[in-house]
Amino acid sequence: MYNRIADTFGSHAAVRFVILLWGEKSSLVTDARQGYPVYTYKEIIELGHKSRVDLLDSEDARKQYSYEAINSDDVATLVYTSGTTGNPKGVMLTHKNLLHQILNLWEIVPAVPGDRFLSMLPPWHAYERACEYFIFTHGTEQVYTTVKNLKEDLRRYQPHYLISVPLVYETLYSGILKQINSNSAARKLIAQLFLRISMAYMEAKRIYEGKCLTKDMKQPSYIVSLLDWLWARTIAAILLPLHMLAKKIVYSKIHSGIGISKAGISGGGSLSSHVDKFFEAIDIKIQNGYGLTESAPVIAARSLTCNVLGSIGRPIRHVEVKVVNSETDEVLPPGSKGTVKARGPLIMKGYYKNPVATKQAIDENGWLNTGDLGWIVPDHSIGRSRNCGGAIVLEGRAKDTIVLSTGENVEPSEIEEAAMGSSLIQQIVVIGQDQRRLGAIIVPNKEEVLLAAKRSAVVDSETTEVSKEKTVGLLHDELRKWTSGCSFQVGPILLVDQPFTIDSGLLTPTMKIKRDRVAALYKEQIDNLYI
User: Fold this and answer.
1) Ranges for the AMP-dependent synthetase/ligase domain (predicted)?
2) Domain shared by 116 and 240, yes or no
3) Domain boundary among 281, 306, 340
4) How many CA atoms lie within 13 A of 156 on its CB side?
5) Cα(231)–Cα(322) distance, rounded to whole angstroms?
6) Is residue 373 a part of any domain in this protein?
7) Mode of pairing for the β-strands spanning 18-20 and 314-315
8) Mean pLDDT, the chain, whole residue set
9) How far is CA 479 from CA 416, 492, 498, in A?
């Protein structure tokens, strides 16, 4: 590599010396050095040691090179945002910001020495950084993996905790279902029946434990609450033996394949409801969390004692969260949807050399505008006795809101999350800004589309590829099925063959789709959809 770039260095930069992080100097082509010295890493360490010894021999030098103690408000690192909401900005995180995470995440993840974490996040991401600091501080073990090696590493290392983004849990969910569907007809039927029973059991369990989300500020009557509780308790008691049998016969095999004996930690994006419920049904706890690079990053997370599905849990210690009217900044009561703001020792010092952006993000009272829309659950909605009040529910980003030409506002994330329940859809971006109706850009799962087409006799059993028109028809049926509970339905569909990837610049390192870039890339095709 050195030899390949040496000429460029020589002609465009005043190179003083070269340091080899590994390898030997003898491996370099002598002609390429062009007269400047080359050091190995070991030689640099030795030079630094000698330089320090020489300095310490001089009283004047000791005074000149003395260092002040690090202050907790000093910047510890610069982490650049992914750029999903504009140009990347350098987030200045202080030692206090990072220490807040280390000292307070234990209540969410009660790790003990001997626990093993498996992670596949980019090491420079704020989510991964905070996890690493926390893991090593508590004397636990961390194993790094990749998308390619995830399945094998889960089986091999049997982690107590998996740290990842929602897309990984969606991939695991799809893989488990695919494995179930590949069994014989009898085994497949039994597994599917057990899954339905377990989901019904968990639904009843959430009701009698008071962990069903509702925006309603009005406390239900005592009689209604008692009847609901009795009904749910009865259903759960009937289904519990069957659920336990399912754990022994079916779910134990899944557990032996993926480990995750304590919990999966999900963050960096929105966790789909169907994935959340699936893992709950097979008795794998998923703790959904939320944060931003600007908050070092964790603001809130679901704890094991208050793991309320559909929420991101409560704020972690020493963090304040409020929901405000986006226009008036008036604080809204629990149950009212608005812009989520956060304040506490985790909030960044600001954006590097960007005071204007800093002022836009953090007000004079220290409140960070997250840009996310959500609401705080009233105390009575999820069980006062379990002290789970104050959980936060997110419903999309303010900047993602699509405004139709009819004046109606649509949160695309709700539709996208619902649509991802379909095995035929690999990726989806809902569109429709300034149009009369919504559309969608979809990357289909070609294998599943072909299987679905054969099952429904859209094509014969010998066909190896489904036409574009027939694929669109199948996807429309799937969208109607999975998004029937959403406020808006999807109209025209744009099929895309190539998946959105990090390399193509359409995914962030935490695998969130960059909407603006996708829309810009397919602008012409999108325009043609609405002709």
Assistant:
1) 55-352
2) yes
3) 281
4) 9
5) 35
6) no
7) unpaired
8) 87
9) 10, 11, 20
